[in-house]
Structure formats: structure tokens, C-alpha cells
Amino acid sequence: MTWDALANIFQGVTTLIQSFSQDPKMAIARIGLIGLGLLLVYMGKKGYLEALLMIPMGLGMATVNAALMFFDPLKLHGGTGTLFVEAQAGATAEAVKNAAEVMTVLQIDWLQPIYTFTFSNGLIACLVFMGIGALLDVGYVMARPFQSMFIAVLAELGTIITFPIAQLFGYTPQQAAAIAIVGGADGPMVLFTSLRLAPELFVPIAVIAYLYLGFAYGGYPYLIRLLVPKKLLAIKPSPAKKKRNITSGEKMLFAVVACVFLSFLLPVAAPLIFSLFFGVVIRESGIKEFIELLQGPILYASTMFLGLMLGVLCDVNTIMDPKVLPLLLLGVLSLLISGIGGILAGYILYFITRGKFNPAIGIAGVSCVPTTAKVAQKVVTKVNKSAIILPEALGANVSGVITTAIIAGIFCSLLAK
Predict the structure, then answer these.
(1) Neighbours of 249 (CB within 10 A)
(2) Residue 245 — φ and ψ, nearest 5°?
(3) Residues with Cβ < 8 Å from 89, sequence gap 6 or more?
(4) Are the CB atoms for 314 and 169 separated by under 8 Å?
(5) Which residue pairs from 220-226 have beta carbons closer than 8 angstroms and sit at least 24 positions apart in sequence?
(6) Lowest-confidence range among 2-16, 238-252, 304-318?
């Protein structure tokens, strides 16, 4: 057997060797992405990052960068590609050419049907939101509406500040808005907004957003400890003077009214708004079969394929695009400022209540449900095991989803071409 025959058989190795001779930076980046993917799998397994998302994402990232071969049917990547997915198919200005490209890759790439029919149109984001809605208890918001919404609004600070900063980097207002919404820490909302406003940056924004949402799980505890001293972390919330049980009928009424009202105000965000509150309504309706369907198969299957798809989209050609580096910086900035904004809200409430409010609750206004609420409780528990802040944190968490949806709807309404 000749060396040429061996090179054709083991094309993953051959393409890597060829990259070292033609473009060493791409070869090193490819090896680095394989390593990062394996690290995500490890950190997901150990519980440092969200396993449900990071394990499929990490394995997909490592595999797609290992499986590069001499295959480029649409001639988009200089003669190399994979048999996983082609995100750029159908991205030209010619409708007929787009249709031909999509039909071609649908018959070749095994994940292309999932990308084309569920990912690039926002369906998978809506399915995830239905599952999240079925897990949410809006009673936490209804018990403390003003407190919860105040925290959530200030926790959008990263989105508001990053929007003009992104334009200084040369992005259009539409692209800047799609980047800034990362600060809301709401993955499905990021997918939805980037598809509506900046489809040309959809893939890198989506990949970066979910990478950072995973790392926020490990990074936000350090931010809380940096900004909130142990003395304040140990504060136990004051018991409510008049505690009233909120019935499932009241919660259902709240969800129905909020869904219709927000959809009336922001029709462009109505698919996600409906999906979230549909899940809440199903939860409070008591229809066991639907609840089990949304909380189980729909949520977990959507999350699995979401993570897998994001992983295989992390190929070296996408990540090494010159436009991606500013996105990395702006994504970090947006989430960092949002976290600071939430804690600032916590401090304001601490002073208003004369020291009876735990400032750590503010981080839960960043709407990564229920991750940031769990992070806040975990940090507080290490200081004071008897301090239960989860109810207040979940109220801010759920409110954060609503405020992020409102801001995304405003961006889409004002900036959509």
C-alpha cells in the first residue's frame, strides 16, 4: 500500500499535517479545539459545568475538528469539510442557488436536517423554552413582583452597555444587538435574536453564548465572593409578614395574561414568549401527560441536540474567523456587567431593607434558569447553612427571563430590516 493510499484512508491526520505546512495557526487551533472539547466533557462529568449541555457539546466539538477530510461539495472551505453539518448552506443572495445548496447538503450531512429544520429557524429554542416553562414556578415572582423585577432589570445592564460598545467595534446596530443580548444569559433568546437580526453571525454568536453560559456556572461564584463580603453572604432573608399561598389557578391566570399582553406589545418575540408561558400553563393545568412530556422528552431531547449541534458547529473554520475574536471579548464583557448589575440591585435592596436582604440574590437576575439561582444558594450555603435564599433567587431568575424577552423583542422590533 502506497503512502498516498494511506493518506486517503486517514484523512483526518492528513488534513492536519497539510494544515501545519500551509497554515500552522489553523492546525494549532484545530488541536486546541479538540482539547477544549475533551475538557468540556471532563468538566461536565465532574459537575464543574452543566453536564446536560457541555458533554454533548464537548464531544461534538472534539469530534468535528478531528473528522476534517478532503470533502467540500459546496466549495466553501478550500477543499476540506466534514460529514456533520454545513451551516453556510443557503446563505447566498440567490434564492434558487440557496435551495439547491440546502437540498445537496441535506442528502449528505447527517445532522443537516436537524440544523435546517429545528436549529436555524429557532424551533429548538422554542422547544427548550417550553420545557423550561414547565419547570418554572411563577409563584416566586408573584410573591415578590417588584423586588424580582427590579433585580432582573438591573441584571440586564450588560446587554444595555454592550450594545453601544459593540458598535464601536464596527458592528452594525443589528449585529451589536444580537451580541449584546448574550448579557441576558438566556440561550434560546440569544439564538432567536441572532437569527432575526444578524443571521450572518448566528453560528459564532450561538456557539460563544452557550460556551460562556457554561463557564458562567463556574465563574459567577467567584464574582459573588469578590463583591459580597462573608458577613453579608450570611444574611438570612426576613420571613414574610403575611404569607399567602398562591393557587395554581392564580398562577395560570398570571401566565395567560402575561403571555397575551407581552405578545400584544412585542409580536416579533411572540414565539418565545408563547413557548415559555405555554410551559407554565401546562404545569399549572395539572395535565399529567403533557407535564411529563414537556419536562422530560421534549426538554432533554432538545437540550441534547442543542448541545450536540453547538459542538459540531465549533469547527476551526468558524472559530478562527476574524469576526469571532471581538465576539469572545464582548460576550465576556456582557455577562460580567450583567452579573455586576444584578449584585448592585442586591446591594440597593440591602440598604432599602436596612440590612435584611442578601446581596448575593442579585446574581439570580441574570436569567440562566435555574443555574444562577442555584449558584447564589450554593455560595450562601457555604457561609451560612441555615440561610435559604432560593425562593427570592428563583423569583429574580424567572423575572430575568421575562425582562430578557422584552429587551430582545424591543431590539427585534426596532432594528429588524
Answers:
(1) 10
(2) -70, 125
(3) 74, 98, 101, 102, 104, 105, 112, 116
(4) no
(5) 220/339, 220/363, 220/366, 220/372, 220/375, 221/375, 221/378, 221/379, 223/336, 223/339, 223/340, 223/343, 223/363, 224/343, 224/360, 224/363, 224/375, 224/376, 224/379, 225/379
(6) 2-16
For residue 353 the three cell numbers come to 431593607
pLDDT in tens, 113-148: 998 888 878 888 899 989 989 988 888 888 888 999
* Higher per-residue confidence, 275 vs 321: 275
Q: Which residues contact 175 (CB under 8 A, 6 or more apart)?
A: 166, 197, 198, 200, 201
DSSP for 144-181 reads: SHHHHHHHHHHTTHHHHHHHHHHHHTT--HHHHHHHHG
DSSP-based three-state secondary structure for 18: helix
DSSP helix/strand/coil, 304: helix
CA 133 from chain centre, in angstroms, equals 15
The CA distance from 203 to 367, in Å, is 21
C-alpha angle 170-174-180 in degrees, rounded to nearest 5: 80
Which residues partner with 73 through β-bridges?
none
Q: CB count, 10 Å around CB of 255?
A: 23
Q: Tell me, what amino acid is at 62?
A: A
Alpha-carbon distance 271 to 279, whole Å? 12
pLDDT 10s digits, 68-92: 888 777 776 777 888 888 877 655 5
Confidence of residue 37 (pLDDT cuts 50, 70, 90): very high
Mean pLDDT value of segment 96-101? 66
Give helix then strand counts, H and E, for the chain.
22, 0
CA distance 323 to 147: 39
Beta strands in 252-330 (DSSP E): none
